[in-house]
Design a protein that fits this description.
48% strand, six-stranded mixed sheet, 168 residues, mainly beta, 12 strands, six-stranded antiparallel β-barrel, 2 helices
């Protein structure tokens, strides 16, 4: 299967403690929704996928942490640092009215309310101040994903309209 059938839900971070626990960067909303999927496909830097099962998970003061089945020592957790957590697109529930999976919007044309073509949506970035769309056209633009700036999404037409100045 090509990569279009996979959706990234997060990434495993550095180990926490000595008993196989790891920090987890979740890209789901809410962040704890990543635990709705008990079996993850972990994609390493070399592109290979392995299946992992969540043994334990919790939210702490520094974010989410997880221990995967078979990981009982820090050394075992270290082997999975940086792995991306993926699930099959078919395993996701359909989005509700007015909701969209970010994955489905990648590649959509982005235009502003005046009709200026900014290019295609390349990716989303979660920054401390909020999510932004990274749009790649004649130049790269980082546009906040807020009600103030995001005017409409037409997934059938693969088009996103934003309220963003052309010269910014």
């Amino acid at each position: 299967m090509d990569d279009s059938g996979w959706v990234q839900l997060g990434r495993l971070g550095r180990p926490q403690g000595l008993k196989g626990w790891m920090h987890l960067e979740s890209w789901t909303d809410p962040p704890e929704a990543v635990f709705r999927y008990p079996h993850w496909h972990l994609r390493g830097a070399d592109g290979t996928r392995t299946v992992a099962t969540v043994a334990e998970a919790r939210a702490g003061s520094n974010g989410l942490v997880v221990r995967l089945d078979g990981a009982v020592a820090r050394e075992q957790a270290e082997l999975r640092v940086g792995c991306t957590i993926e699930v099959l697109r078919a395993d996701l529930p359909p989005p509700g009215p007015g909701e969209h999976y970010q994955h489905d919007l990648i590649g959509c044309q982005v235009v502003n309310v005046e009709g200026a073509d900014f290019g295609a949506l390349g990716r989303f970035e979660d920054l401390p101040a909020g999510a932004v769309m990274v749009v790649k056209g004649e130049r790269e633009r980082w546009i906040p994903v807020t009600g103030q700036h995001l005017r409409s999404i037409d997934p059938a037409a693969r088009r996103i309209v934003v309220d963003w100045p052309e010269d910014f």
